[in-house]
Amino acid sequence: MGYYHEAITHSDDEVKSVIHMLMRISRLGSEAVIDSRQVFNEDLQGNLKGVRSELLFSKEPSTSTAYIRQSVIHTVNEAGGNASSAEVFYAGVLPGNEGIRLLTLKTLSRVGDSLAYQVFIPDLGRVFKGVRKYTGMEQVELNGKITNAMKVKDTFEGFPIVRESWLDPEGRLLKSSEPNPFGQMTLALSNETSARAIAAMEIELSENQYAATLARSNVRLTQPRVLESVTLKITQNVPGAGLPDFAGSYQQVIRKSKDEVILQIRKPVPGEMRAGRPEYLHAT
Fold first, then answer.
1. Are residues 253 and 125 part of one domain?
2. pTM (2 decimals)?
């Protein structure tokens, strides 16, 4: 349980969005708190200029600052007393939250219309390509009142999430629903008193919710340290959600379809040098 609060301010040359999210997860008497605060800076056309992200998870703070430049994002990350920097490359226009809202109003005028965009997700440090489709008008109940809303569906390349959102006539969020490891997560517009009251409630995860976060196998590796490689078959259990990009060091995609991937993970050889371009992540 928790709440999500967004405050948007306009100045002469920029739009600033401050997002605060608080979630509490309890299991067997232990509680984990996820406290996230993000600040997005955009120009008046909705182009992303910078992001500041602060995350407190189980009392461990981390921060990330992103500076958006033409074709490259410079990030500085701090956690556990250590700092690192990275560069993320992109091409074309990179809108922020306000930019995506403006594109929605401009492009999605009829049911079935869609728009392609890309978005920087600071928690993952990556740029994802997304598609938003206008699926129809629906009525949603908010604070005891029925409201007509524009329903859209967002999908992302290399990120297996399907997000459904209900928007007001200005393209602002009224309600959303998307999967997370503990089940379907729904956000709905409310007032501050109700939101804070819900966030303060102590609700235990059920056994089924907790079990859904575990990947179980019917194979036991008797001597895992002597293995040279392991080949896995991973199946997406949400039809149409797609699969993430499994590119990475010491692993190779053998075969991939819409909802299934065969992935080989091999043991690193001591002293082995990685081929290709150098690492973008450097400790400082």
1. no
2. 0.75
